[in-house]
Amino acid sequence: MDILLNVLADKKINEKITISGSKSESNRLLILQKLFPEISIENLSDSDDSVHMQHALSTKNELVDIGHAGTAMRFLTSYFAVNKGRETVLTGSERMQNRPIEILVNALKDLGAEISYEAKEGYPPIRIKGAKIIKDKVQINGNVSSQYISSLLLIASKLENGLEIELIGKITSIPYINMTLSLLTQLGIENKFEANFIKVYPKTATQKQAVVVESDWSSASYFYSIISLSEIGSEIQLTAYKKESLQGDSCLAEIYKHFGVLTTFGENFITLKKVKESNKETLEIDLKNAPDIAQTITVTCFAENIACNLTGLHTLKIKETDRLVALNDELTKLGASISVTNESLHLESSNKINKNIAIKTYNDHRMAMAFAPLALRVPIKVLNAEVVTKSYQKFWDDMKQIGINITDYQR
Ligand SMILES: O=C(O)C1=C[C@@H](OP(=O)(O)O)[C@@H](O)[C@H](O)C1
Ligand SMILES: C=C(OP(=O)(O)O)C(=O)O
Fold first, then answer.
1. Where does 3-phosphoshikimate bind (predicted)?
2. Which residues does a 6 A CB cutoff place in the pocket of ligand 2?
3. 56-90: per-residue pLDDT in tens?
4. Around Cβ 410, how many Cβ atoms within 10 Å?
């Protein structure tokens, strides 16, 4: 599905949108629910990634295909590794077969797991023979993906003696590790994270309880971008959010002050309001703690004619696509002066945006969603717009509600 987006008449936005549960919290809780059936989950994400996770956890088939879902791939690797007596071949989309898994597989093998590669060494598909793990100490590299660490933490309390993890090197995406630990704490699973050591204590059962998933902050980022590009006085209410979030992407509230967006926290919702013009100074941010909002912020800067220097982007190369290259290529088509390295992005300010450019999305939901707000400036085409369902089922309906006109486009 290719689409053309434009805005027919500028008007002040004043809308209320409900966003589905965080896919990160949901995919952790789905694994935890399998290990602790006493818990129930509310406001579960309806994302494709969470649907993949649910299917994977309920099927009895040997072959389990999780599509593009990084968290499902990584979290299920540990889950199946300790599922004694079960043999599983875990695979995913073509892109997933090029997203590295070796660091996690090596850590699990060090603990005694039986895992082998079905095709390319270091990448899915992997064959996992579920085994009983008795070791309780492991080292793992922390600078490639925090998902490997969360994966071990999720199963840790079910190991006989719990698990102590020593993180080697710089640690990336730390809020996601803290999210995992906070959810464990919520379930009564004791843990501590000190310096580069994490310890999770064993737990056989927890109390019957409902865990409520906060809505997805990465999904909220697109509304921050839209409000930034809107008339002063425009506002959007998003449900269901809270001030004390487990999601690192809630740093959006602070970052988007640069674009004149004020966030107010209500009872279970946030309101984003454009209160003043954007600050035209260069935006300098290290995003190692919030990599998923890099695309949104870059496009907001481009649309607002603001230069930016984004650093801490070393994980972007191994996400749904190489997001640094994708941003570079698509923004260049729109007329931007942009340069990227393997871990950073520099965008010059420029006051020209080319019209009617067809944005390629590279099977990456965030490419489609990050570029959509540009429609508030110029007509823009988005190719393979259906990719958004990886994390956000009703994204295009919500864009229509905001006032973006969407029509089919024939290539
Ligand atoms: O644990 C998680 O839920 C996630 C961790 C991050 O990945 P990395 O740790 O690989 O950066 C993030 O980009 C991803 O969307 C979700
Ligand atoms: C990187 C992402 O997801 P995953 O790694 O779980 O595929 C994302 O949603 O931006």
1. 23-24, 28, 145-147, 173, 292, 319
2. 68-71, 292, 319-320, 366, 391
3. 999 999 999 999 999 999 999 999 999 999 999 99
4. 5
Q: Whose CA is nearest to atom 10 of ligand 1?
A: 145
Expressed in angstroms and rounded, the spacing between residue 120 Cα and the centre of ligand 2 is 21
197-200 and 345-347 strand pairing? unpaired
pLDDT in tens, 106-144: 999 999 999 999 999 999 999 999 999 999 999 999 999
- Per cent of the chain over pLDDT 70 is 100
Measured CA to CA, the distance from residue 53 to residue 338 in angstroms comes to: 37
Fold of 3-19+215-408: UDP-n-acetylglucosamine1-carboxyvinyl-transferase; Chain (3.65.10)
292 is catalytic: yes
> Which atom of ligand 1 is the closest one to the Cα of 292?
13
Q: Which CATH number fits domain 23-212: 3.30.450.20, 3.40.50.1240, 3.65.10.10, 3.40.50.2000?
A: 3.65.10.10
Closest Cα to residue 315, out of 284, 286, 336?
Answer: 286
pLDDT tens for 195-219 read 999 999 999 999 999 999 999 999 9
Q: Is 132 annotated as a binding residue?
A: no
- Whole-number Å distance between alpha carbons of 280 and 294: 18
Using DSSP's 3-state secondary structure scheme, residue 115 falls into strand
